[in-house]
Amino acid sequence: MLRSLSVLLLLSSAALADTADGEALKAMTWDQIEAEARGGTVNWFMWGGSDMINAYVSGYVADRLKAEYDITLNRVPITDAAEIVNLILSEKEAGITDAGSVDLIWINGENFRSMKQGGLAFCGHTDLLPNNALVDWDNPAIANDFGVPVDGCEVPWNTVQFAFAHDSAVVPAPPADMAALLDWIRANPGRFTYPAPPDFTGSAFLRHVFIHAAGGPDDLLGPFDPATFETVSARTWEILNEIEPFLWRGGQTYPTSITQLNELFANGEVDFSFNYDPAQFGLAVQAGSWPETTRSFGLASGTIGNTNYTLIPFNAPNKAAAMVVQNLLLSGEAQLEKAKTEVWGAAPAIEIARTSAEVQAGFAAIKGHPSVVPAAELAKAALPELQADWLIALEKGWAEKVGN
Amino acid sequence: MMRPDPRRADRLRLLAGLALAGTLILPLVPLALWSVAQGWRFPHLLPQAWSGRAWAHALDPASGVLESLALTTLIALATTFIAALVGVPAGRALGLYRFRGKGIVTLLLLAPAVLPAIAVVFGLHGVFLRLGLTGTVAGVILAHLVPVLPYMTLVMAAVFARLDPELEAQARTLGATPFQTFRCVTLPAILPGLMTAGLFAFLVSWSQYLLTLAIGGGKVQTLPLLMFSFSSAGRNDITGAIALIYILPGLLVLILTARQVTGRGAALTQGLRP
Lengths: 404, 274
Fold this sequence. Notes:
The complex is a heterodimer.
Chain A: H1 2-10, H2 22-26, H3 30-37, E1 41-47, H4 51-69, E2 72-78, H5 81-93, E3 104-107, H6 110-117, H7 140-143, E4 144-145, E5 148-149, E6 155-161, E7 163-167, H8 178-187, H9 200-213, H10 226-243, H11 258-266, E8 272-275, H12 279-286, E9 294-297, E10 303-311, H13 319-330, H14 332-339, E11 347-348, H15 357-365, H16 375-379, E12 382-383, H17 388-401
Parallel strand pairs in A: 1-2, 1-3, 10-12
Antiparallel strand pairs in A: 3-10, 4-5, 6-10, 6-11, 7-8, 7-9
Helix pairs in contact in A: 3-13, 9-10, 10-17, 14-15
Chain B: H1 6-25, H2 28-35, H3 53-59, H4 65-96, H5 102-114, H6 117-130, H7 137-161, H8 165-173, H9 178-206, H10 210-216, H11 223-231, H12 236-261, H13 267-272
Helix pairs in contact in B: 2-12, 3-12, 4-7, 4-9, 5-7, 6-10, 7-9, 7-10, 8-9, 9-12, 11-12
């Protein structure tokens, strides 16, 4: 404990193994990078709200890094990655280009777009990672983060697909698609609500309604189109305003975060919750927050899938060690460990077929949590994520037309 | 005319005391229950099942809670100590002497306690960033001094205003060195006030969230930050366990200084008065 305290005290001065110069690293071989990484410290800023995810990172990942590479992993728990994007932005404005406070972030979506557009990401290093070979970069859902090309600026960590949760003891037969869900809401006043966008999850629910209003995602792919947005969004606001009186508390108010919706669901005030990462349902049941009879489902009309990533900021002082962390996270063994139900239950971001026979057998042996709808089942009806411009227009429109 | 029954007054006083203690302690009961709950959902009055899991997590060295407790204590103690070093002489100057611009100095000292924290944070962050102090424990301690120093200085100013400087003069005439005078005369006289100011300083630093988050950049993980990351994720059980740990040092400091703070130790000051 004392040692890590003194590490904190010393953080103001430059780290011992300073590998801030990313261009120099890119000219090296992987063995050289590993040698540079030895003895380094990686400050990994990540959402810290799940004890099981925290335990996986501070336990399995940190232990392996220490034992195999003598790298100290300092997991920094945060509540919102947007705060860290702002932190790095203000570091850039203050002229801090090689001694930033962040070495690695867990990120995706709008935050990635901000980092990439602001020149805040360290790009072009992903090909150097040996385990990059396990990633299927031909898959557009991995090569694009919310429609923004990844371009070697971040490394995939998990894939997720939106799903709904219900208590099978209360609602034995949940609606099968968006149209049926809207009917269900009208037939059961006060039993459904969604977090007000721009909450990450509430915004995702809004996009499902938007895609439903468009009759499918085909017209919405690609860059933002004002004319299409105009007609489809008008229909979306009509649907949402029409169901508003049937929502929890008559739609007078909306939960402000997914945490609030989860709490409402846990206390039986509403009959559904939903999440971008269905593994969270299993974690909530294992934590005792949700009933054992919780089950989850996708929609026949499809649910949106995405990938989340790890990213090294442009001014990270320990780039070599952060790259070793990224490589380890991508390894078949680490991806298998976090896929285990009792560890996290997260779906892998790598192609299982490209891993060793042992790892493949491990994946085959995983028995899913009964509350978590299997990824393979969700994947049967998958929708692509819309580009960030659509997202922003939708969130703004919702605030004006529905949440006013 | 009825004479008031003294026993009834006593009973009323006891009742009022209990009611006050109840309102202070009752909000802690759900925290304690949550910390050992394995699921506690409406409409159940008590948790459905009990579990030591939140405490196991909070006390597990890998979770960083204990480390954070040590760090929070270190920061609060260091802040209090530095605040005393600065605040005692400053309080003495404000309390004992009249000088030009005293009103403005007092106003400036009060400013950080009056201004909204968010306004202070933005400016401070920019300055600290350029000085390379963000993300460091030293930077966080320095930042905590901003809201802490006004309390320390103003309490000490009030204490010194009641101190008779003639006492020090007498000690000096009797041959005491300046240090002996401070140790044997001044310090005993101001000690109860210093304890009160120290308690304020410790608790103000202990409860900082915004300043720690901004200046520490998330890297200096004090208990309020850690607690918030679990509460915002809806983990009431772990939040409850950390909250109870979070209360402990404050209680400890309060118990240790209660005698001085409640004025029972004030006899010492009075005894010194001529």
